[in-house]
Amino acid sequence: MSKVWKRFFGICAVLFLLFAYWQINDPDPEFWVPAYLLAAVTAGFAFFGRFNVNISVIFTFTFLIAAIFFWPENIFSWVGQEWEQKNLSMKTQGMEINREFFGLLVAAVVFALTAIIGRRKRLLENQKKSNVKRSDQ
């Protein structure tokens, strides 16, 4: 795995830990704290070069399906509201739903990347093993 991916997953792990911490005061932390901790742990394992492709694929689809339930009604007005208020306080229910949607979407992308890179790593390792077996014969 390249240093760029290692740094990317390290940054993602730290960010997801921060997201989990910030969700403690959320109206529904029992859902969001574990969700972000799952993403942090997965990114942390990826940082250390440990991948579980099957679990990453399951988490990718689970988070994408969950994101569908939080599909935002009007993304552009939400972005405008966020720029106007200049802080992270929640002023409307729509802002909360949009933030939850994008949080799930970002986590799903990170899960998908861990699955892709983990699969690529596994294929390269299998290819090296088969090359070694061929050279021994």
UniProtKB/TrEMBL annotation:
Keywords: Membrane, Transmembrane, Transmembrane helix. Pfam families: TMEM220 (PF15071). The keyword Transmembrane helix applies. Coiled coil: none annotated. The chain crosses the membrane at residues 7-25, 31-48, 55-72, 101-118. PANTHER family: TRANSMEMBRANE PROTEIN 220. This is Transmembrane family 220, helix.
